[in-house]
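[Solved] Which block belongs to which protein?

Original post:
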Amino acid sequence: MVDIHGFQYRQSPFIAKCVRITDDNGQRLGSFMFAPPLPFDQLSPAFREQCKWLTRHIHRLYWGSGRIPYACASRVIIDCLTSKIIEVCGHQKKRWMQEILPADYTVIDVSEIKD
């Protein structure tokens, strides 16, 4: 399971900030905080306000935090995965994982699975 928290505003792409990877038994395989892909002051005023709101009310992650370059997200995540079948929760997170992983990985949105 890959748990992802990040930022999005309206039609902007989802920007992952914190990624935690666990195996099927719940054992943590990795936890990563990515640096922002661009400086906070380059975001639109409305996007900056959305980031502040998310930080205060949802996940407490700051836009400027993180040490791992955003461009390295794919490599860092792939190095930690133990399976090519990846579970996430949410369509934005599924889309983001599909964009950064090679085509031979399968990403499943568990919120779409019906009993």
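(Second protein starts here: sequence line, then its structure tokens.)
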Amino acid sequence: MDKSNLVFSPTMIGSVGQPDDFAVFCDGHRVGRIKLAGRIGQNAIWEWTVNPPPPIPSWCSGAASELEQAKAAFRASWGSFYACLTPEEIARWQTCGRID
């Protein structure tokens, strides 16, 4: 598995893609989400979270003022999280709900 192979795909509700809500996939597995949580004045709040099956540390979520910042923060957090996984955890995770 290549931990850097992240795909940001609009969340689908019915057959309609949501423009401000993204599922994050790594090699076909859903590993997180980024969504527009709201606005404070003119400032957007993009929430992001890493959430594959293993227990997730508190540093695997956050917020940013721009989508690209949220994507960058997600990538950094995902890389750190993935580096902490044992080969057994990776194998167990890969058997859970692959999405192609």
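Accepted answer:
You had them paired correctly. Confirming on the second one: The longest helix spans residues 67-84.
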